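Reading a protein record of the kind used here takes only a little practice. Think of the row as the fold of the chain written in a discrete alphabet. A record is reproduced here so that you can trace the correspondence yourselves:
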Amino acid sequence: MQQTVLIVDDEINITLSFQRLFRKEPYRILTANSGQQALDIMAREAVDVIISDQRMPGMTGAELFSIIQQSYPHTIRLLLSGYTDFDALTYAINNGAISKFISKPWSRDELQKSLQQALMRAQELSCQSDYDQAFQNSTQGMLLLDTDYQIISTNAAQLKLTGHQASELVGNSLFEAIPELDRHQIQSAISSDQYWHGEHWLLRRDKSIALFALALQENPDTQRLSFSCADITQARRNELSSRHDLLTGLLNRQSFEQEVAEPLAGAESASIIAVLSLNLNNFRQVNESYSHATGDELLCRVAASLRELLSEQQIIRRIGRVGGDEFALLCIAADRPALFSLCEALLDWFKVPIEVGEHRLFIHFKLGVALAESGAVSAAELIKQSATAAVRGDLQQRFSVYNEQMLKGAKERMELHNDLHKVISNNELALVYQPKVEIKSGRIISAEALVRWNHPTKGLISPDQFVYLAEESGLILDIGDWCIGEACRQLACWEQCGITPLTVAVNLSPRQFSDYALPQRLQALQVRHHLGLSALELEVTESTLLDDSDRAINMMQQIRSLGIQFAMDDFGTGYASFDYLKRYPFSTLKIDRSFIINLCNSTREYAIVESMIKMARQLGLSVVAEGVEAQNQAETLKQMGCDYIQGYLYSRPIAADAFEQLLIEQPFLIRCAT
């Protein structure tokens, strides 16, 4: 029979605290807010242990226990008090009304141990009245042991729980019957406290496993040990399903919010409480390119990696899955530098590809950080702020810290999102072209086509303001197709005007790249515009390519068979660029502008760029340097053997007619210092 504990206190916060403290235990908890209410409950409920506060209006704990001692002598009585009412307490103790006195504030471990001992004592007293009947009819599995841990007897519940026969248990050692137990640990606990308890996954006789709550109590009066065993598998599963994400086993959003609320309520001014939000980039692409099962497995692997990081980083206190592809971490740090160092370590942690089946997936995160300022923010708001920082943060930063400016303009972004659905039908998109200059001749031989949005009321809107909205909504597929089609149309016009040869590069989004029909649509454009597609180039970044799968490589080879070339964009900003260049059929490498900015005043940047160019040469790739803004940068790149240069030194992105005039004038000359 399940044991019952009655908690008596006139402060509801105390009774709720006890309920939370004992919520995982396999016994029933009842509560009362006065001595009289406690007596009313005991008149209709069998109570094994009662825990009462001393100071309560109407009836003190000692007075209540004196009544219970007379009416319910087998109920174990634990008195809690933070006061020094010695006369009343001494009288109650001397008269046996109090089984044990525990002073306030109490130790959580001491209280739990005292309660467990009280429950065992209550069990023993119950058994003493009619031992055989109670032992055999108990729904809780039980064994009776001698002081050498040899099993003397077993009840029917124990045999039913484990599937064993009595002959397989009686006469054997407890540690032979249950080899999963740690003999040294149990003997040490019994020797010091006369009590041990724990939870173990045990193997039944039919080879199935279950989670059991186990307890072992020594009774010095009888020179016996009593062992109890309760199957808590379903209870734990129910708890897991209510508090945890069923896929990853991490805390769900509601439970994570509760965990965040606790330190916020009692935060110390010397500590920084923060929530980190991690959004997986291109997670939708994983589901679309492979399967939802692969996506689920990826989430589980990420969760496992976060748990491993938790064991190494003391700053991280809790981890939750708070959205489909969103994880959150509760962190408590001594200062901001320590917290930000963790952010860097977290991003570095996932530089190693994650193995999911036959796939090697490189995972990139949007990392947002929200800091609690003086405990003035709620847990829900702090989580929301971290998610906002992840989505709205500066794309040039490895991680973003929330500030109020991120929420400003939310209405405008929603309006842009709605208007974005009409950009193609309303003919609001336009391409601009930034020249790529051949470094040897100084002539424009190609360009990068960049999309712009001419909003009817807001004017010109740059891609930084709307591309991510298009990615989120899925409109990037239609917009991307429009960009390629418009570039092909313009190329055909220039060919008709005799402006050849010329190549135009168009950026390819991750979602476009994952579309199996892309090669067929490109071929249809060739037919529609009567265009030799050798004039078209597609630029992709590392984040567009998930791994070196046969599907991705086959996709690129199909497109290259149409005469279309591929360029690796933003080279050097990722960690697997060399691996990609070796496996994928690229023809061009574009060095990111971040390496060009300090090219002429940093020996380190100079050496890196020079090495990139040499490597590209060895791989048979042409090289484009992005972000060239100074003549000395152009001259240095020419000395290094770079093929093409792109940047504000020559031209900003300009409309098609202005670009056509540049093609006719060809005004550029790259000198090389002697």
User: Anything to note?
Assistant: The radius of gyration is 36 Å. Residues 108-129 form the longest helix (22 residues).
